# Entry
Amino acid sequence: MSPRKKKTTHSNENHEESLTEFLGGEGAESDFSDAPQSELGLFGEILEGSESTTQDEEVEQAPEAVLPLDKSVQPRAHQEPYVVLARRYRPQTFQDIVGQEHVRDALCAAISRGEIGHAYLFSGPRGTGKTSTARILAKALNCQENGPRPDPCGKCASCRAIAAGSSLDVIEIDAASNTGVDNIRDLRTGVVLAPFSRYKVYIVDEVHMLSMQAFNALLKTLEEPPPHVVFVLATTELHKVPETIVSRCQCFHFRRFTVSEIVRQLDRILELELSRRQLFIAPGERQAILELIARNSEGGMRDAQVALDQILVLSKGEITLAAVQRFLGMANVSALDEFVRALGERRTEDLLLIIDELVQSGFDLERFTRDVAHYLRDLLILRAAPSREELIGAAPDRLMAMRQLSETLPMTFLFNLSRAFASLADQMKQMLHARFALEFEIIRLTKLDPVDDLKRLIDRLDGVTGKVSSPAPETRGRTFTSGGERSVVTPPSPSPPEKTELSRDVLRPSDKQVVDPAVASSGATGVTGERENVPHTPRPVETATPAISSPATAPASLSPGQLSGTEFYQKLVALVANENEALSRSLREAALVKLSEQAVVLAVNPANRFVYDHLNRGPNFKKICAAIEQLLGRPIPLRIEFSDLGDGGGAATEAIKRIEEAPSKTAADQGAPPEK
# Structure
């Protein structure tokens, strides 16, 4: 500080008196009060110091004068911090736990009897109460009011500290961010230290994220911890936890909540929040809104509470069903009703228009497809098990409307719809254009009539059958089901094949099915009804062969001469289906064009490149070869080639001419029974 500034350390009264005398009176101060400080020099510095001191004293004497007059406006720092609903309404006692009664009762019984385990493993989906239950268990063990007790008081210092997350004896570890072996070594070091309360509880969340080295380091401590230590491990993926860890813990699985359980819990929360936030909700829409939130959460209570919290924050005075639907990206129930009804009536244009409206409104089509699949499942359950309404979890008035809709749809059609949309919902997760996939599926279900395909198949079979010279030894039946109707077609069985007549067996396995006994005994005629007077030839006695229900029941040894092409292919597809259903579906899209001692040849339409690649894939090709060897008792080479099978039997016959022909059986062999 300069020497001049040191002189200004006198009292304010001396400054004012000296200034008044120097400037020539009391009124002179006002003449320089408005002058710039640069012009006043030393006097400006003195005036500035005196004024600032005076202002500070005035603020200290009257602090109310500088505060805002509006008492309702409070600074942000003084407001109570907002706590989300999932934390505010977190269960604090075992009695508050909803939907996990099997876990609650087991833990309460163990605490009451004093049989407290040293390690617990809680598994289940997210948001089902695993960590909350672990905290309640820690409260019950360390409660200072006659603890351990199954009903912690919640008022003692230990209970309040655990509820606030500040207890030194409850250590929560996030295994996702502490995956290394060094973290487990630190845990082992702290385990030996005595607790402040009765027990030291370690809660390890997402324990499946630990590395294998960390699991090995934890193994000995988890098996024989000190008597004052309790481990609670929580995971959403139990299959990733090593068996050595699982076997050392008492395991409890937390299930998903039902829609009704979530609705009841949300209704209690909403009742308190509406009055606290001064919000309004229409009584007629309240139940529908809660059910919509519950369905959107997919069994997670925390997800439902988070969604309700966001809806309450975004609502401006009133909560409406339309606003909730837009927020969740879900279609309302009336839209689902109209969509399913249009599917049943095959109104393709209306269905495509509904999809366009959903896209324009910003709805997630993948989520809409899942909703349709879930809705069709509910309709199917109501149709198949009318008395099991608890499997649906809907309100009584809603159940009545759903039951009426389900009765308007044929059972077979409803089943096919449910399976189609469930499969589409899984496929859309890997698709870039969800709209295209949904539109293609709708067109397939409403425009591509399976009856037309069956008619074309029957015409094709008639053309192939016309080439057979000898009469059929026996007629066989086929059962087709489409749109809930049942029709029986009985084409004649193939006669002993000649070298150039192998095209008779160019059939997919789905083209021939088992005939009802009543139909077989009623003297069913051929495809066109022209073979009623065909003389009956005794059918060769077949070797007793058990049904192809599993690989173990396959015949020990057969030869291509003992099976027709259709019978062999049916057994082959059934045998493959036991191990790989997807591979069996690809086999149904192919056709058998040759069965001989030298080779088994399958043909695939050139337009169906996916099926060809799927069958020729290394593991799939080996499975088919293994099934052929299991059926015939010895390995026979397999070939898969392209052949246009869409123009009847002609193209298939041309394909056969390009390959080695199978030796035909003689008439004597056909009529003679097999050797015993």
